[in-house]
């Protein structure tokens, strides 16, 4: 029953919807009938309005064409300029009616009038400014000024023709005055070219400034055309007289030309140049590095070191000047003269540095300020900067790559002649030290060491090499910024940076070697002492005092002189520790035989040395600074091994099993050679040693054929093979019990 009621309700709903739809269709039909008449009236009104407007335009067009033709004949250019624009605008409304003969005829009359106007205006300009003859008639007329306004409306080619003819006529005198065979045409009188155009531009502004419309930028166009002509003429004359070009003359001409280009940039916007894009300058961060200073204005008549670049307002930076290179581009093929000159100048500069160093000697040691950087390196890089900026203003192409090659050559020369060449020689200062001569040293005897001045010189050369390394990196970055993007990959100063790194490494090695060799006699004395005869433990032995004395003599000087390069002082400490500690342990093995008391004395000495070495970076300093963790780790590891060796020596060798296990536990060294040395130190007989060695091989946890490193690792952590063998033994044991 409920389902039937629902079906009835749905049927009723469908019926109501159908009724509503029928009524809506009837209403729509009724509205259409009511508005039909209104629509017709609306269309009629629109068509009528369009017809009236078109007729008005037609009347204006017909009248305008007649007036245009009459005014053209009477040369009434002032009225023509306004009328022509109006006629052209009205004619655009008739583009869709060109099929009508009368309209097409009017359009052709307008075009004919435009052509006639164009030819007439060109003829008027030719008459006023004849291309033949050098003298121009009197000032401009109002007729020509109005003619320019008409030319704005005509075909752009008319305007271009007027501009071209006027500029050509204006510069005709220049081509005659500065012909290739004239004396004033050569580079030494290049100023006269720029003085001539300045006068011409002033003359133009006074006489013809108001004749041409402002938006034509005629003054700039004359200047730009002058630049193009000058570039062509200069290129031609330089090709002919290439052998006469000297570097001073070339730089003089380039400097005067870039000054002129800078003047153009201040006076004009560069809107008439096709590629007048202006980039924003990049502001580099302030720094003491010469390659990070402000480079604005670095022009000088001769190559000199400038003290301030920012105080003098000079030529704008290259990226800001749309006229940059418009004339000076012609000098680029001849820049090899400049590059050769820089090669020669830098060679002389390096020779002067060498001579100055020989004459003045090494820099005086100044403990307060740390190791002095040689002043010559700052001079070199300031000169480099000057050359780089100057060359980048001349060209950012191949000449910059050639200059980079020159830079590389003299960076290497500086590194070898000034830095490496002046490092003290170890053979001369130490009298040709050899292992045999060291072994012959008697207790208390001294070996030749570097003097205070020599130590300071090494530190000074190290600091200079570090400065050169950092500055060379900046130089490479700057060169890459300056050079064309396509040539960036060809600039690479890594080899030169490596050269300075080698100088730094050699300097540190010299300092380490000096201190290391100074300590050798003390260690030799230690190994020659009769340790089995020591009866009681006292204060530290004389050899320890000798080592400490040498450390206290050298390290404070080195630290103070390397105050500005802390990381290299840390490297020195680490290298010394890595050299001295193994040498100390080797000498320790030579102390044989050793009694119990002797071993205790040696242990006390070793501990004293360990404390001194831990304190090495800040020894003799009023400011106590914590030693670097990397250094401390090396000292602790090495000297702890020395202490462990002595502790093993002090341990009784009976029972042998306990002694061997104790050795393995303390030293974690599976080498039979080391164990043999320990037995020698204890003074055991050969028969006892052989049984001990057999026992040692049996007690080794790792197989004897394994590498030494693997053996030492096995003491600290069992390998997977050892674990599996232990598990197998356990399984067998459990089975037996079951």
TrEMBL record:
<keyword id="KW-0813">Transport</keyword>
<dbReference type="InterPro" id="IPR038260">
    <property type="entry name" value="Vps53_C_sf"/>
</dbReference>
<feature type="domain" description="Vps53 N-terminal">
    <location>
        <begin position="1"/>
        <end position="357"/>
    </location>
</feature>
<keyword id="KW-0653">Protein transport</keyword>
<dbReference type="GO" id="GO:0015031">
    <property type="term" value="P:protein transport"/>
</dbReference>
<comment type="similarity">
    <text>Belongs to the VPS53 family.</text>
</comment>
<keyword id="KW-0967">Endosome</keyword>
<dbReference type="GO" id="GO:0005829">
    <property type="term" value="C:cytosol"/>
</dbReference>
<dbReference type="GO" id="GO:0000938">
    <property type="term" value="C:GARP complex"/>
</dbReference>
<feature type="coiled-coil region">
    <location>
        <begin position="3"/>
        <end position="44"/>
    </location>
</feature>
<feature type="region of interest" description="Disordered">
    <location>
        <begin position="703"/>
        <end position="726"/>
    </location>
</feature>
<dbReference type="InterPro" id="IPR007234">
    <property type="entry name" value="Vps53_N"/>
</dbReference>
<dbReference type="Pfam" id="PF16854">
    <property type="entry name" value="VPS53_C"/>
</dbReference>
<protein>
    <recommendedName>
        <fullName>Vacuolar protein sorting-associated protein 53 homolog</fullName>
    </recommendedName>
</protein>
<keyword id="KW-0472">Membrane</keyword>
<dbReference type="GO" id="GO:0055037">
    <property type="term" value="C:recycling endosome"/>
</dbReference>
<dbReference type="InterPro" id="IPR039766">
    <property type="entry name" value="Vps53"/>
</dbReference>
<dbReference type="GO" id="GO:0010008">
    <property type="term" value="C:endosome membrane"/>
</dbReference>
<keyword id="KW-0175">Coiled coil</keyword>
<dbReference type="GO" id="GO:0007041">
    <property type="term" value="P:lysosomal transport"/>
</dbReference>
<keyword id="KW-0333">Golgi apparatus</keyword>
<dbReference type="Pfam" id="PF04100">
    <property type="entry name" value="Vps53_N"/>
</dbReference>
<feature type="region of interest" description="Disordered">
    <location>
        <begin position="279"/>
        <end position="299"/>
    </location>
</feature>
<feature type="domain" description="Vps53 C-terminal">
    <location>
        <begin position="600"/>
        <end position="684"/>
    </location>
</feature>
<dbReference type="InterPro" id="IPR031745">
    <property type="entry name" value="Vps53_C"/>
</dbReference>
<feature type="compositionally biased region" description="Polar residues">
    <location>
        <begin position="711"/>
        <end position="722"/>
    </location>
</feature>
<dbReference type="GO" id="GO:0042147">
    <property type="term" value="P:retrograde transport, endosome to Golgi"/>
</dbReference>
């Amino acid at each position: 029953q409920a389902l039937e009621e629902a079906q009835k309700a749905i049927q009723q709903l469908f019926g109501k919807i159908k009724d509503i739809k029928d009524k809506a269709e009837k209403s729509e039909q009724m509205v259409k009938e009511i508005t039909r008449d209104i629509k017709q009236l609306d269309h009629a009104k629109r068509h009528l309005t369009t017809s009236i407007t078109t007729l008005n335009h037609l009347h204006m067009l017909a009248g305008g064409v007649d007036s245009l033709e009459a005014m053209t004949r009477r040369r009434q250019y002032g009225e023509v300029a306004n009328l022509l624009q109006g006629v052209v605008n009205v004619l655009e409304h008739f583009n869709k009616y060109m099929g009508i003969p009368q309209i097409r005829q009017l359009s052709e009359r307008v075009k004919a009038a435009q052509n006639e106007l164009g030819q007439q205006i060109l003829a008027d300009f030719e008459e006023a400014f004849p291309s033949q003859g050098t003298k121009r008639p009197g000032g401009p007329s109002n007729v020509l000024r109005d003619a320019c306004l008409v030319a704005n409306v005509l075909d752009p080619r008319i305007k271009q023709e007027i501009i071209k003819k006027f500029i050509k006529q204006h510069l005709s005198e220049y081509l005659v005055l500065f012909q290739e065979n004239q004396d004033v045409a050569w580079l030494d009188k290049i100023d006269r070219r720029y003085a001539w155009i300045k006068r011409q531009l002033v003359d133009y502004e006074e006489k013809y400034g108001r004749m041409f419309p402002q938006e034509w930028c005629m003054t700039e166009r004359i200047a730009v055309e002058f630049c193009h002509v000058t570039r062509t003429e200069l290129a031609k004359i330089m090709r002919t007289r290439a052998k006469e070009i000297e570097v001073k003359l070339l730089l003089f001409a380039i400097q005067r030309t870039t000054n002129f280009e800078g003047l153009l940039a201040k006076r004009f916007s560069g809107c008439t140049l096709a590629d007048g894009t202006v980039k924003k300058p990049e502001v580099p961060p302030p720094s003491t590095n010469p390659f990070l200073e402000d480079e604005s204005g670095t022009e000088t008549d001769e190559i000199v070191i400038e003290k301030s670049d920012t105080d003098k307002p000079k030529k704008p930076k290259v990226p800001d000047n749309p006229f940059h290179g418009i004339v000076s581009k012609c000098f680029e093929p001849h820049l090899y003269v400049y590059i050769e000159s820089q090669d020669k100048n830098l060679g002389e500069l390096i020779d002067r540095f060498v001579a100055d160093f020989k004459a003045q000697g090494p820099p005086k040691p100044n403990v307060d300020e740390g190791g002095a950087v040689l002043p010559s390196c700052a001079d070199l890089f300031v000169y480099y900067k000057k050359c780089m900026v100057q060359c980048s203003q001349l060209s950012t192409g191949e000449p910059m790559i050639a200059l980079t090659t020159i830079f590389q050559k003299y960076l290497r020369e500086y590194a070898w002649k000034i830095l490496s060449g002046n490092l003290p020689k170890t053979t001369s200062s130490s009298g040709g030290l050899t292992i045999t001569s060291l072994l012959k040293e008697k207790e208390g005897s001294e070996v030749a060491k570097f003097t205070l001045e020599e130590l300071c010189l090494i530190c000074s050369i190290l600091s200079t090499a570090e400065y050169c390394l950092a500055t060379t990196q900046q130089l490479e970055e700057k060169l890459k910024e300056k050079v064309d993007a396509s040539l960036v990959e060809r600039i690479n100063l890594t080899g030169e940076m490596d050269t300075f790194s080698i100088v730094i490494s050699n300097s540190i090695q010299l300092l380490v070697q000096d201190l290391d060799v100074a300590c050798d006699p003390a260690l030799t004395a230690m190994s020659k002492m009769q340790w089995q005869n020591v009866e009681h433990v006292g204060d530290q032995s004389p050899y320890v005092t000798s080592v400490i004395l040498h450390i206290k003599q050298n390290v404070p000087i080195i630290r103070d002189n390397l105050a500005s390069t802390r990381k290299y002082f840390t490297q020195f400490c680490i290298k010394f520790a890595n050299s001295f500690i193994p040498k100390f342990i080797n000498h320790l093995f030579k102390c044989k035989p050793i009694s119990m008391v002797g071993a205790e004395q040696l242990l006390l000495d070793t501990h004293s040395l360990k404390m001194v070495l831990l304190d090495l970076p800040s020894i003799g300093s009023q400011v106590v600074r914590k030693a670097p963790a990397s250094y401390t780790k090396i000292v602790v590891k090495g000297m702890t091994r020395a202490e462990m060796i002595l502790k093993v020596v002090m341990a009784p060798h009976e029972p042998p099993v306990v002694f061997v296990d104790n050795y393995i536990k303390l030293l974690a060294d599976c080498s039979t050679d080391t164990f043999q040395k320990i037995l020698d130190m204890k003074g055991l007989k050969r028969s006892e040693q052989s049984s001990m060695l057999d026992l040692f091989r049996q007690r080794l946890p790792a197989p004897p054929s394994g590498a030494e490193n693997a053996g030492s690792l096995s003491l600290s952590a069992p390998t997977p093979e050892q674990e599996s063998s232990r598990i197998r033994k356990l399984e067998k044991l459990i089975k037996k019990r079951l």
